Amino acid sequence: MTLMIFLMNNTPIRIGYLNCRGLSAASFDTIASYVPSLFDIFICSETWYQAPSYYSSHPLFLCSSPTPPPSTTGRQHGGILCLISPTLRRHCTFSFTSLSIDLSILNTSIRALYLPPSLPLLEFSSFFSRPIHSSSQSSSLPDIFLGDINVRLGSLSMDTLSRPAERKQVIINTLSAGPYFLSLPSSGLAKNHHVLTRSSTNFTWCYRDASFLTRTDHQLMDCSFVPHSQVDLGNDSEAFRINLKPLQHLAIRSELCACFNLCADEFSQYSQDQLAVVEHCSKAGLLDQFGLQERQDIVDYLDKCIVNAITTSAEEVCGTYKPSVMRATADQFWSSIPDAPSVSDAIRAFKRASRSKTVTLTSRNPDISPADDAVAHFTKVFSQSNPAFQAPRVSPYRGVSFPSEVDFDVFFKKEDLALFWERYPTHVAGGMDGIHVRLLRALSDSVLVDRLMELYHLCLLLGVTPTSWNRSTIFPLPKRDETTIDTFRPISLTLMLRRSFEKLLLKYLGHSPAFWLHPTQAGFRRGFSTLTHALVAHESAIMGYKYRIFFDFAQAYDTVPVPLLLQKLKERNASPQILSLVDALFLGTSSTIVVNGQQTQAVPLERGLFQGSLLSPLLFDVFIDDLASLLDEDTDIQSRLPRGLLFADDITAGSDQLSDLQVSANKMSAWAVQNGMIFNLGKCGLVGASPEDPEVILPGYGPIPIVESYTYLGFPYESKGINFETHLTSVTAKAQRTLDICMRNSLRWNAGIRLAFYRTFVRSQMDYGAGLIYHWIMQGRPEAGTLPFPRISANDTSRFHLLLPLQALQESALVWILEHDRSTLSHYLLAMPVITTRFSNLACLLTRHFNKMNARNPLVTLQHRLFYSPRTGDRVSPYCRKHQDMTRWKSVNRLCEAGRLDPIPPGLTPESRYYPLRLWLRNKFLDDIRATGSIMAQYIVPSMRRRMTGACQSVFLHSRRLRKNAIAWHHNNFAQGSTCTICKERFHQVHVSRCYNAHLINRLPARVVQAYRNYHPPPGTPSNFGIVDFMIRFKYYSALSTCFGLLELWLRPRSNYAYQ
Fold first, then answer.
1. Listed range (353-367, 517-531, 563-577, 855-869) with the worst mean pLDDT
2. Can you tell me the distance from the alpha carbon of 1001 to that of 992, in angstroms, rounded to the nearest whole number?
3. pLDDT (tens digit, 9 = 90+) per residue, 609-631?
4. Cis, peptide link before residue 604, omega less than 30° from 0
5. Contact in structure between 314 and 242 (CB atoms under 8 Å)
6. Which helix (H) or strand (E) holds 711?
7. Lowest mean pLDDT: which of 61-65, 274-278, 299-303, 630-634?
8. Across the strands, what pairs with 591?
9. Could you give the CA distance from residue 850 to residue 832 in angstroms, rounded to a whole number?
């Protein structure tokens, strides 16, 4: 039921009130399942706080009284909570105490009460004299009092009893001062439950049996009232946002799909008819019958229908909220995290704690507001002052007739769209229409995919896209401590429906010859990477290119002239269909800026690629592709060393002569003038030159600064190539800082979450470039890395000693994760190899990447010469072509594909015919550890490991005591230093099965004991495999906790203890 139905049809709002005498999770689920069909608001009193965190996780939950400290004398008392429909949630404000909930909804205020008999009279009377604070009216007494107030009113309520007299007098005073009148139930006799309403409120209620909801001796109050209709919906300029939290429930997602299907029925026939007509005209060559405005109207109307159906169904089912109201309320995120959170909740909490505080934008000019200053700044950035690059009034590409060259059935598949939504990161915000990817993901089982495919097909056939897609929202984020707009980094958000269309269109553009790029371009291309380009620059320096210039464009993406880009696409023989779509997507765009929480007016974007568009990186590569060809003209054919290398806007040129670089600088400057680009000279750099050398001049700017080192694609580049030692030092320091932050902000997380922190935030920094570093190190000690734990010492003559700081960092992380002294078995428990093995695995993956990289990659052209040329001490590429583990993996995979791999490796199914390299490397590491002869490693079987991380399941136990005992048991130091109280020897794990087995079996659950007796260990299981190992392996954690508790008790030094 929508809000307009409440206001226009005077439909009553139904309120339920029930004293449930204890609300368990099961009873709450029953009540919550009935509320959507019976009530708009439901109040539960006397919940006794049995499951407060469970209540708050439900999508209908609005608020509840604060949970008191745990009772030391028995169960809790009291507790009141409110459930509300999503439709009314956005129009409801509330406050609460331990005994009341105040609601203000549609200009009607309600106070729901539970006043126990033990409440003092003064406090009882305060609930009928305290005003309610509403955003829509001044502070006054509520319009409605209702609830269980534990007073019998005698003849006032047609009751035979009247008690207590003091409370009755408070009610009489309230009735006379209000003016209020006592509303009597239409059925049943009011005893302790009462309703006081103002005379202007149309309120009725009755009693109903509550046995279908929960076991209670109270009846259900079924109330209804018609809200005041003086609600002004037109003066609220702030957009509402859809509440996405309910989407985690399957029932809500199903209801959302059903609601959308109902809304989509209104325009489904129109969509199908329009597509049929346009498709027929396209095949017959009759698209000229559709003018540009008519084409635009067709896609705009269908887009509007789809968006309205999504937002209407989402508001109906999920509800909405105001961002300003959320910002004004206290942050409840930390209190909502349970004591045993999931990995995702813990990572969210860590990011939230590490997030910088909100910075308020200030104006650079005191005479104008920050919003006007932001508009002026971005107007200057995106204005096109050069008349040669200004867009024409009438587009020469849109509105023309053309044959459709995009095979819709091949490149626009429904499953590809659903897969894009499934893989799209949920932490990325949606566009200004409020449609988030989680909402689209929830609607993937509805007819939304069909309607979107019809819209996308019409866009392809007509060569136009919806006008709404050309609007975005810019969020300025602070870079430093400055507060003016020119120091902020703009983040632009486009609409999710546009992003989905562009993702599918990218699949076609990758096959179009018009978008094939020069080999020296590596940005955002399959088969290319930062590592291959950095390696080409490194090898070029070793082979003679001791001078290298690094160029930097100022605001490269924001200064691209789109008309010139279209002209370049036309010269590259792009089809009229693609030209029309690019024109529609990138001309006539505008953005609003969010300044201090408020949106400004739209700023027209006269130049620049649309920030936030998925097509922008590819189009920028196309725009600078002629620059790559221009620099490549000077490449030495005999040396095969490319003169220029381009990775998006990271452009560099190298040579063995400064005069050659001067030629390249001249070409760069001339190209920039012709294409409307501007250099940032302060961020350019010349490596390899000395002050005595001739200056290299960038025409129009001045001499390029000489620097000793320049950070190129994340590596410190010097005259002799990449300085891997400096890179290792920098990476170690950065990773150590991150680890320190993790240790400070995650004290209450368990070992599994700490492992996730290490893998997510620390190891990811250590891994960048690790494959190259390993191959560089291997030149001095080729036999190292073949063992699972190669020994590294500071006296090592090879380069392996450079990894000692990283290894020490990982060891400290290991102790922090397990809260246990490190050992070889600790690595095995966490499936976390030592640094040398880790780097060796990444080097193996890098070798596979090199073997599969694009054939036009410049590294491929260098490989033949590099392989047969003398291998100097800093040459890396020849060692990257082969890796010993690659050869082993290929031979194992051949057996796997032939179905002759026995036994089946952990992580593979019997039907698998392909052994992923990453999984093989992990299993190889675990097998190597088991082969070292560690008896304790035999107890951790593959079934005990997490599939994604490979870590032992015991690490993820939420109970800290149980987790520490299980980890100690794995390390064979449980109860270390204790004495066996039976045989008087020093305690060892074998004593459990030899001395304490009978005592444990008598005290453990019968089902666990029976399962243990029926278990037959597989071959290879250690002979002393006992009941504790069995419970760990098969996850009998409750019994395991009992077992550890008994062992700790028995191993205490008590001479008078006897086993009974």
1. 855-869
2. 11
3. 988 899 999 999 999 999 999 99
4. no
5. yes
6. strand 710-712
7. 630-634
8. 472, 603
9. 25
pLDDT exceeds cutoff 60 at 441: yes
- Give φ, ψ of 67 to 5 degrees: -75, 125
Tell me how far the alpha carbon of residue 757 is from its chain's centroid: 15
Q: Quick count: other Cβ atoms within 10 Å of Cβ 461?
A: 24
First and final C-alpha spacing in the chain: 66
Structure tokens, 715: 């590596």
Q: Determine the Cα–Cα distance for residues 437 and 427; give it in Å rounded to an integer.
A: 9
φ/ψ of residue 349, rounded to 5:
-65, -40
* Segment 916-945 mean pLDDT: 77
pLDDT for 805 equals 92
- Torsion over CA: 958, 962, 968, 969 (sign): negative
Closest CA to 561 of 617, 602, 506, 620: 620
* Residue 915: how many other CB atoms lie within 10 Å: 20
Q: How far apart are CA 134 and CA 147, in angstroms?
A: 20
User: What is the DSSP secondary-structure string of 347-371?
Assistant: HHHHHHHHSPPP-----SSTTS-HH
Q: Residue 812 has what pLDDT?
A: 92
DSSP-assigned states of every residue in 187-205 = SS--SSEEEEEETTS-EEE
Considering the chain, what percentage of its residues have pLDDT values greater than 70?
88
- Identify which of 918, 920, 858, 868 has the alpha carbon closest to the alpha carbon of residue 893: 920
Q: Which range has the worst mean pLDDT, 512-526, 808-822, 867-881, 1026-1040?
A: 867-881
3-state SS track over 593-651: EEECCEECCCEEECCCCCCCCCCHHHHHHHHCHHHHHHHHCCCECCCCECCEEEECCEE
Conformation bin of residue 224: beta by default, left when phi > 0, alpha when psi is -120 to 50: beta
Q: Is the peptide bond before 164 cis (omega within 30 degrees of 0)?
A: yes
| Residue percentage of the chain with pLDDT more than 90 | 32
pLDDT in tens, 157-193: 888 888 899 999 999 888 887 678 888 898 777 788 9
Q: Taking Cα atoms as reference points, which of 96, 110, 29 lies closest to residue 63?
A: 96
Cβ atoms of 927 and 937 closer than 8 Å: no
Question: How many other CB atoms are found less than 10 A from the CB of residue 82?
Answer: 23
pLDDT tens, 190-245?
788 999 998 656 788 999 888 888 888 899 999 998 876 544 433 344 567 888 88
Question: Three-state DSSP class for 548?
Answer: strand
Answer with the residue of higher pLDDT: 349 or 785: 349
Half-sphere exposure of 824 (CA within 13 A, CB side): 16
Rounded CA separation 561/702 (Å) = 25
Question: pLDDT tens, 104-143?
Answer: 887 889 999 999 999 999 999 999 988 886 544 456 889 8
Q: Which residues of 590-619 are buried (b: 16+ CB within 10 A; e: fewer)?
A: ebbbbbeeebbeebebbbbbbbbbbbbbbb
Q: What is the identity of the amino acid at 896? A: C
Number of other CB atoms surrounding residue 912 within 10 Å: 16
Return the DSSP state at 683. G
CB burial readout 789-816, b (16+ within 10 A) else e: ebebeeebeebbebbbbbbebbeebbeb
> Taking a C-beta distance cutoff of 8 angstroms, is the pair 63, 101 a contact?
yes
- Token representation of residue 886: 């690659």
**What φ, ψ does residue 933 adopt, rounded to 5°?**
95, 10
Residue 253 phi, psi (nearest 5):
-65, -40
Q: What angle do CA 845, 847, 852 make, to 5 degrees?
A: 95
Where does residue 986 rank: exposed (0-12), middle (13-18), buried (19+ CB within 10 A)?
Answer: exposed
Banded pLDDT at 43 (limits 50, 70, 90): very high
